[in-house]
Amino acid sequence: MNHWSFLEASLNEGIGVLLGMNDLETTIATLNMDMKGKINVIKTAVNLKSPRDWAASAVQDISAVQKMSELRNMVAHTCFGSHESGGVIFLTTKARGKLKFPETIWSPADFEAHFREMDRLYGRVKFIIGGLRAKPINRNLIEAIARALEPSVDQPSSDLNHMIDIGLDAGEGRP
């Protein structure tokens, strides 16, 4: 679970970077997101802010994190015990249309392979986040959009005009 915690922390960091949040804001936001939501946020940002060939590779790695989260859920939420082979047996149950009890046994080598994959994905996510950090979202544009969506009685359209002046005319905020 230690390997997983570092991998998930790298996704949380990425969300904070992408949305321009400080550490406390990032913690609050990501504690209230499930893994699927975190993955979708990162994938969307990668696709919006990156060249197509780089984005395809990055999305492939982020998708691999989603698959790894399924294994993490099995380890965290399934009864398990030692197996005569020297490995671990997970008492898995599948109930999607049909009830199944697949035998899932991991050897020590299987655990090591999963740890290595999580460590590889951690490095890739950190690399991806670094690439996205180099292309920050225009925070002024985000704030102007927020103000334009909730206009004050005093100046209902000035924020919208300001948003156009600071972002769209200058091409800022676009991938």
General description of the model:
By secondary structure, the protein is mainly alpha-helical. The protein has 2 domains: 2-76 and 112-137, no CATH class; 138-175, no CATH class. The protein is built from 7 helices and 5 strands. The chain has helices spanning 2-18, 23-31, 35-49, 52-77, 108-133, 139-149, 158-168, and strands at 80-82, 88-91, 94-95, 99-100, 103-106. It has a 3-stranded antiparallel beta sheet. A two-stranded antiparallel ribbon has the order 3-4. A hairpin with a 5-residue loop joins strand 1 (80-82) and strand 2 (88-91). Helix 1 (2-18) runs parallel beside helix 5 (108-133), helix 3 (35-49) packs antiparallel against helix 4 (52-77) and helix 4 packs across helix 5. The longest helix is centred in the middle third of the chain and has 26 residues, at 52-77. The protein is elongated.
Give the overall shape, derived from the CA principal axes: elongated
- Count of alpha and pi helical runs: 7
Strand portion: 5-15%
Structural class: mainly alpha
Please compute the radius of gyration using only Cα atoms. 21 Å
Biggest sheet features:
3 strands, antiparallel
Alpha-carbon distance between the two ends = 36 Å
Helix content: 55-70%
- Number of domain units: 2
- Total count of strands: 5
Q: Which stretches are low in confidence, meaning pLDDT under 50 for 5 or more residues running?
A: 152-175
Biggest sheet, spatial arrangement of strands? 1-2-5
Mean model confidence by pLDDT: 79
Order of helices and strands: HHHHEEEEEHHH
